[in-house]
Design brief:
Layout lengths: L5 E2 L1 H6 L8 E2 H13 L9 H12 L2 H13 L3
Parallel strand pairs: 1-2
Amino acid sequence: MCPGPVATNFNKVAGVKFNLRSMSSQYVASYAVKKMFKKKLIILPGIKIKIARILAKISPEKLVARVCYHMQEKKK
C-alpha cells in the first residue's frame, strides 16, 4: 500500500503539510480493501502516485533520491 499523502487526524495534530493534495483516509481504506480482495500485490490509489512510481522507475536513482530528499526537507 503506497497511498502518498492521506488526510488523518495525526497530520492535524502534528501540523504536517504535504505538497500534494491529500486523499481522504476513508477513500484510501476502501480502495485498499477492494484491491486486496482482487489479490493486488501493490496498491497505489490516485493517479499522481501512479505517475510518480512510473517516473521513479525510469529515472536515475540519484535524481529520485534528490527529489525525495527535497520533498521531505520541505516538511521541516
